[in-house]
Design brief:
heterodimer, A: 167 residues, mainly beta, six-stranded antiparallel β-sheet, five-stranded mixed β-sheet, elongated, B: 228 residues, eight-stranded antiparallel barrel, 54% strand, DUF6048 (chain B), Lipoprotein (chain A), DUF6452 (chain A)
Chain lengths: 167, 228
């Protein structure tokens, strides 16, 4: 073995070992853990034309086994709601304008849960396959499932909610 | 190891003129006989003492074929334990790799077995995983726990590698392998990809880099002595 060979060997081993990562802590979870149902509020103008419809002070309330939890939004037409991973049904209450004291509609989603392994950093989550959506009709005219697969993909809408046409 | 570098420079010069191409002398080929080297990785045993949730042991055998090609066979075993608040399981696995190395250095003499090399491998492993206990936490709706059943599955990956071996004393070689590994059947165990697969690395990554540091003992035979 020449001195040059020995120097190259030692240098490369020191360099490579110093670059080698041997951390044992759990890596941070960098991907979305939860799958949210995305809904869009629209109003029919004609049979073939709809427009996005934002309400002034929309309010959603989840009806969970442990109680209710509400979310007040600023005016908008798109919402992301979570579905229950502990049941095959989730119930949300919707009020289009809390300030005006509008009547509250109830929306019920039925679905199949699909256990999904994300990674060792993030663990498991549930994805959902929507089966049906039903609603009362105070403010809401009807709901339509436009994409039944609810995953961590945040680019797709799943539900279109038709608000009653203005009188 | 130095002479080939100068020889390479000579080749570049002579390539400038077509007429000179025929004047390039052939590199001297030595009758080096056979070499069988058996070695162990000494890097992972050190890591095993520092990392409590995974372990690996690896060894290698390489045999000189001809024209600076070496047949390479490697193998080992290992395991891991995942004990996160929301995910717990253990794995054990064994693995084997088969491929070749091509030395890219020219020999200074028939006794020169120092080398830098590039190589390819195909690898196979078999992983046994315990039942995986998980909890999906949801602050609004509540949490749910469950068990992913235990299973065994095969892992196949390919590797490109580069490295070096230097003969410290007669027959005792030391060196390293840097490896780029590409998982080829990751979809088949997507239900719970292991944190660590001995021989590969992170089971939930499609491509990983890895390092081995080897100590080898070489047995040589069959070299014809020059007649004086």
């Amino acid at each position: 073995m020449t001195d040059k060979a020995r120097n190259i060997l030692v240098t490369t081993i020191v360099l490579l070992v110093s670059l080698y990562s041997c951390t044992q802590e759990r890596q941070p979870c960098l991907t979305p853990r939860s799958a949210s149902l995305r809904m869009r509020m629209v109003r029919k103008v004609t049979d073939s034309l709809t427009i996005d419809t934002a309400t002034p002070n929309p309010f959603f309330r989840a009806v969970a086994a442990g109680g209710q939890q509400g979310y007040l939004y600023t005016s908008r037409s798109s919402f992301a709601l979570s579905l229950s991973p502990v049941a095959d049904t989730s119930m949300w209450l919707y009020s289009p304008d809390t300030a005006a004291g509008t009547l509250t509609d109830t929306i019920i989603f039925r679905y199949e849960r699909q256990l999904q392994f994300i990674s060792n950093a993030c663990g498991y989550t549930y994805y959902y396959d929507l089966r049906s959506a039903a609603t009362t009709s105070h403010t809401i005219d009807s709901v339509q499932i436009i994409n039944s697969s609810v995953t961590s993909d945040a680019s797709k809408n799943h539900i279109q909610v038709y608000i009653h046409p203005r009188p | 190891m130095c002479a080939p570098v100068y020889a390479q420079a000579d080749t570049t010069k002579t390539a400038d003129t077509a007429a000179a191409e025929t004047d390039v002398p052939d590199r001297k080929k030595y009758d080096v006989g056979h070499q069988l080297a058996i070695g162990v990785d000494v890097f992972y045993p050190v890591l095993n003492t520092r990392i409590s949730n995974k372990y690996s042991y690896e060894g290698e055998v390489h045999y000189y074929l001809k024209n600076e090609y070496y047949l390479a066979a490697e193998g080992g075993w290992g395991g891991s334990e995942v004990s996160y608040p929301d995910l717990q399981y253990t794995t054990t696995n064994y693995f084997g790799r088969l491929g070749f190395n091509k030395s890219i250095l020219y020999r200074e003499s028939e006794h020169d077995w120092d080398m830098m090399f590039v190589g390819l491998r195909m690898a196979y492993g078999n992983v046994s995983r315990s039942p995986g206990t998980y909890i999906v936490t949801d602050s609004l709706w509540g949490s749910i726990s469950g068990i992913s059943p235990a299973r065994s599955f095969s892992v196949i990956w390919s590797e490109v590698t580069m490295g070096m071996r230097v003969e410290l004393v007669h027959g005792l070689l030391a060196g390293w392998n840097l490896r780029g590994k590409f998982l080829m059947n990751g979809k088949s165990f997507r239900d719970l990809q292991p944190l660590h697969i001995a021989g590969y690395g992170k089971g939930d990554k499609g491509a990983v880099f890895d390092l081995n540091i080897y100590l080898d003992y070489a047995i040589r035979w069959g070299r014809k002595e020059k007649k004086k």
